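Quick one: examine this chain and its C-alpha cells and tell me how the chain folds. Here goes:
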Amino acid sequence: MVTYEQIKNNEEINTYIRKADESLSVLGFTEHSFAHVIKTATVASDILARLGYPERTVELCRIAGYLHDIGNVVNRVDHALSGAVMAFRLLDKLGMPAEEVAAVITAIGNHDEGTAVPVNELAAAIILADKSDVRRSRVRNRDFSTFDIHDRVNYAVEHSALVLDAEAKTVTLNLTIDLEICSVVDYFEIFMNRMLLCRRAADFFGLQFKLTVNGNVLM
C-alpha cells in the first residue's frame, strides 16, 4: 500500500510543493508550503479518526491533504482540478489501487471554494482543515504598512483551533483576533465563502459548524 510517509518523503512531490509555493509567493499569496499541507493533512485525518473511520481511510485523507495544493505549480486558477490530475499520475505510478486513487483525487478536486463540494469523507475533512488554517505565520510580507486585507486578516489571528466535539455533534473554529489589526467585518469579507463551505462540509458528517471570534459565537 502507498503510505503517507512515502508521499511525504517523495522528492518529486516535494519539488512540486516547493515550486507551487514559490509561484504563489510571487503572486502575493500567503504561505502554501509544507507547514500548510502538513497541517491540512494532520487536521483532516484527525477528524476522520475521531469520527471512527477506518485507518486506511484516515491514511488516504493524510495523503490527499498533503497533495491538495500541488496544482498551484501549474496555475492558481483551477489549481484543485490540475492538482487532481497531477495526483492521479503520481499515485498511479506508485501503484495505488484505482479505488483509492479515485477517493484521493476526488478530495483534491473538491477543496477550492470556487468549485468545491464535499462529495466524500476525504473532501469534507480536507475542506474543514484547509479553510480553517488561518494564522499569523502564513503571512510572508514583513512590512505592515503595505499589508493588503489578506495579510491583515491572517496576521491578526493570534490563535486558531478547529475543535471537534463528536458527542455534541459540532465542529468549531475558535479564533483569537487582534481587533486593532483587523475587524471581524474584514475577516468575513474574505472568508465568508470559506466558512459557508465549512458548514456544508460539517453537514456531510452530520455536524454543526460553528465559528467563534474572541469567545463570541458568530456562526
